[in-house]
Structure to design on (285 residues):
């Protein structure tokens, strides 16, 4: 069963897809950068003993955008998630995230660790970092990218099928997976199809955490953690996992065949590892 959900926060409307039976244990699912809630539709077919609430992060999918004078900061997503969680009184719950969603999930599990029963990170493990000395250059690049974004116009799609094919090629994913993501990321404007995601999402981050900050966050995670990496995934993700496994006290790491969106293209195997982890560590099935 699939439901369209809406949650009104103080300043934003969060849209979501409810997948499965709401009476079963809940998994709150956070998608990756420029993806949306449809990222978790394929895997829901193999997680029949759970209810997945897959949200569109602010600025993505069908959720509202940040105000015109705001920008997109990683830590603000942690705020959004907590406001949603507290408004719905969701606790404790299973938290799952892919790519950027996994980064947000790990920060949330660290900051509000009593709310999270188990954490599953797919193709991510903690925040991306840079050295402190790179901060001035990082901020300069971010400001320039924001100014350039202000003059960029929203371009209509020339071809839906062509757009899906391009997304599949760039993301190294199947056509069907790309189609799911693209279809939820479209709206009609002046009788033409355009992307619904906020163009400001493509601007550069103003600051990156340092590795010391990342270690402090990851070391504060109290719940059992499963990290699943893609065998053909990004090398920097593999390196981060290798370097950081010792930071978390209760952790399992596994890998599955596929590229960065392998949870969409190889959902049966990914779900199998998730279920084994959840049954073994949380007692939920």
């Amino acid at each position: 069963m699939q439901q369209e959900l809406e949650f009104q926060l103080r300043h934003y409307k969060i849209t979501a897809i409810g997948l499965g039976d709401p009476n079963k244990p809940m998994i709150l699912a956070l998608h990756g950068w420029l993806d949306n809630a449809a990222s978790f539709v394929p895997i829901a077919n193999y997680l029949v003993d759970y209810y997945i609430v897959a949200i569109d992060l602010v600025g993505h999918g069908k959720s509202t955008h940040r105000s015109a004078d705001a920008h997109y900061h990683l830590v603000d997503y942690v705020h959004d998630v907590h406001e949603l969680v507290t408004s719905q009184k969701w606790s404790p719950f299973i938290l799952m995230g892919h790519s950027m969603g996994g980064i947000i999930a790990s920060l949330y599990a660290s900051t509000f660790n009593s709310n999270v029963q188990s954490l599953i990170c797919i193709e991510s493990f903690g925040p991306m970092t840079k050295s402190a000395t790179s901060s001035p250059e990082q901020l300069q690049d971010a400001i320039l990218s924001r100014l350039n974004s202000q003059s960029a116009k929203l371009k209509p799609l020339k071809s839906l099928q062509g757009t899906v094919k391009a997304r599949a090629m760039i993301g190294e994913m199947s056509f069907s997976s790309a189609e799911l993501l693209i279809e939820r990321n479209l709206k009609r404007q002046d009788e033409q199809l355009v992307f619904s995601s906020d163009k400001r999402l493509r601007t550069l981050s103003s600051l990156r955490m340092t590795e010391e900050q990342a270690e402090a966050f990851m070391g504060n995670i109290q719940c059992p953690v499963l990290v699943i990496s893609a065998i053909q995934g990004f090398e920097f993700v593999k390196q981060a996992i290798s370097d950081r496994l010792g930071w978390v006290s209760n952790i399992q790491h596994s890998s599955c065949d596929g590229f960065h969106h392998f949870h969409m293209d190889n959902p049966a195997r990914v779900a199998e590892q998730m279920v084994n982890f959840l049954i073994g560590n949380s007692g939920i099935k």
Notes: The mean pLDDT is 94. Residues 135-151 form the longest helix (17 residues). The longest strand covers residues 2-8.
